[in-house]
Amino acid sequence: MFESVVPSFTALVRQITTAELRNTPRDTSSTANLIQPSFPLLSLPLELRLQILRYLCPNVYCDGLYQTPKVLRTDGVVCSPSIFLINRQLYAEVREEWYGHVYYRARIHPTGFHLHGCVWSLYRELPRTLGYIKNLDLEVQLESPGSMLWATHRKEPIGLYCCTEFLEKCARDGRMDKLRKLKLGFGVSSACLEYYRDRIGDLRADLEREMKGLRGLKGLAEVQFTGTWQGCALHNILPEETSRSSATGTLHAMTKIMAGFVDELAEAIRG
Q1: Which pTM value belongs to this model?
Q2: What is the mean pLDDT of residues 11-26?
Q3: How many Å apart are CA 253 and CA 201, to the nearest integer?
């Protein structure tokens, strides 16, 4: 029965005509009719409304970090999110459904802030989407735009680029007050790995300095460390003997330090 009801409501939603919107009341009775709710979907229980909304634009999986969201349902019908903009209440319910129940993957990288297949400059305003997300899976890439300087064998502190200001913007003015769960991991480039191979004792202080903006988040229910990812193949940049021996040990030591940092951060920002 539900399969037949949903298409009917879908058609009903699309039947709202511009002529009806332009209707000008001529007497008090017609004015009263306009004030009364005239959208049948809103008279249904919330649970049923959500089922209809999920049918209209379901959650089709895609890699939200590197791909833009898919616009086709499994039945081949085009999803049209703009249909939810016709009513404030529906929009609020859909927004809560989309941003409140799944983890959104994001990455902070020297090239910008990556989310939903889009890239924002770290020096511009945050995307409004961040203000709606309750569960965030964040990866911070530990590398620098100047990492190619390793070709000149210059021992410069390029393990971390400056993302402090961006993280401070995330927590400032309640912009991410709805965030309740955070997964935090780090991407490690080969240049970063080589840098900390000789300076592993500096990593914790560098993390504290660069990630201090995250301490502005409060009231989180859960904070997890998701591990480290290798930014590029070690054998393509580092000497073979380094790749086989010290690189693995360095990455293990870095992971242990990062896990301790995230555990301490979790204690500070959990509600």
Answers
A1: 0.70
A2: 47
A3: 10
